[in-house]
Amino acid sequence: xxxxxxxxxxxxxxxxxxxxxxxxxxxxxxxxxxxxxxxxxxxxxxxxxxxxxxxxxxxxxxxxxxxxxxxxxxx
Length: 75
What we know:
Elements: E1 6-10, H1 14-26, E2 32-35, E3 46-51, H2 55-64, E4 71-74
Antiparallel strand pairs: 1-3, 1-4, 2-3
């Protein structure tokens, strides 16, 4: 059985990460704030984990809410 692929969103600030978490949870997506994975770097030490299959929805919702992201990465 394959594990689901996950993605992380990197942010410029912790406040952006918290705001993004709220936006995506209100939309019904299962997301979780986590420390930024070691192989990635970010000005903010917090990343948001989500199921990679929802990446376009995540990108669209965050863009629509005006949340600035540093990048989306598959992990």
